[in-house]
Amino acid sequence: MKRIKIKELLLSKDFGKEVIVEGWVRTRRGNKNVSFIAINDGSIIHSMQVVVDIAVFGEEALKNITTGACIKVKGILVESQGQGQPVEMQAKEIQLYGTSDPESYPLQKKGHTLEFLRSIAHLRPRTNTFGAVLRIRHNMAFAIHKYFNDKGFYYIHTPIITGSDAEGAGQMFRVSTLDPHNLPKTPEGKIDFSQDFFGKETNLTVSGQLEGELAAMALSEIYTFGPTFRAENSNTPRHLAEFWMIEPEMAFYDLEDNMTLAQDFVQYLVKYALENCKEDLNFLNEMYDKELISRLEFVVNNDFKRLTYTEAVEILMKSGEKFEFPVSWGTDLQSEHERYLVEKHFNKPVILIDYPKEIKAFYMKQNTDGKTVRAMDVLFPKIGEIIGGSQREENLEKLEARINELQIPSKDMWWYLETRKFGTAPHSGFGLGFERLILFVTGMANIRDVIPFPRTPKNAEF
Ligand code: 4AD
Ligand code: MG
Q1: pTM
Q2: Number of Cα atoms under 13 Å in the Cβ half of residue 77
Q3: What percentage of the chain carries pLDDT values higher than 70?
């Protein structure tokens, strides 16, 4: 006989049938006649209640069935007498796979803080909270592929090790096989990277965009979905050193098309979560954030407000709000400014466009005003920036001029520039931070709690 997952059994009406479940004990309670074991296999947030007749099994046989232990139960599926679950099992045989010492099991008691759970990242998937977050994370990854596949976008695998630092999106992590205690030097006394594994300096990628653009210049509509790495020392609830990013890139899209896609994409994902992650969202709504589900519904049902950076700066300057960082035209917006616009002023998601070129990347399409570029940032309640993107500069001369202005070493960029030389095309794209999306959908407050093993400054234990 094969095990059936609890998710499936809880929907079953096969009362009287003999079934097997396997999973981890969440609780065991009862009296001297009967014991109730709640067993969870992670397939769903709910546990299966197993009813054990102590006269049949004996106290001794049950003594090691404690919280955290792993067991296999064969029993009869019956309609539940108690409240809280539709079905339960009457145990016939119990096999103990692994004990879990109640004295030392860190999850013996409920109600741990999220900070404490971060220190036991190897065990926290056993909690309801992380089970819910991880199931939602899976569903969102699946929905991303489904969305693009249904629209005819092709999934491109861009490299994780890169030889260029053109994006300038953040500090990079070096990839090297050189012996740090005995670095080869050039005659000028610099590190001789020609002796390194790839014969040049290489790093972990900060974004798959530049390579994604190459693919879009052939397949029209593509997306990447991979890990990206930024070695900034930002210890905030919204930054990771290793995070996942989804980057669609589309030939023949202008900034308007780009914004329309971004809104449709995020609304699709949030709607998918509402429809497919109900139990987990209900749990998170109840335990962490009573407005979670209504906030998700609101985002699905309302257009995002579109306005220019210049208009946003005017609103912020006139707001009378005391910001920690003052606003003026030309400065990058801080998360407090973004959240003011979204949460206080417009009360809906916002897409800001046409940012000053000085605070945006070299590849963004230059506006005729000479000052701004066709950038777009999508700003969300509680999160701030969830998406960053732009229409790209497709004109070779303008792009080269900007590269020279910024003194970007163009010898590393020849391949990127060739797309502008051979059959250049208007095109646009954006990057959605996967963990920022999961933060929004789960209502969790800290990005460390929406990725299984967070990488942040001074933290890579697990
Ligand atoms: O705005 P960013 O830096 O844009 C790019 O990397 C472009 N190449 C995207 C493109 O046009 N294809 O990053 C995009 C998104 C941000 O909006 C944010 O959601 C997320 O990536 N992000 C981070 N998420 C977690 N931790 C960090 N350190 C992040 N930095 C950016
Ligand atoms: Mg950005």
Answers
A1: 0.97
A2: 21
A3: 99
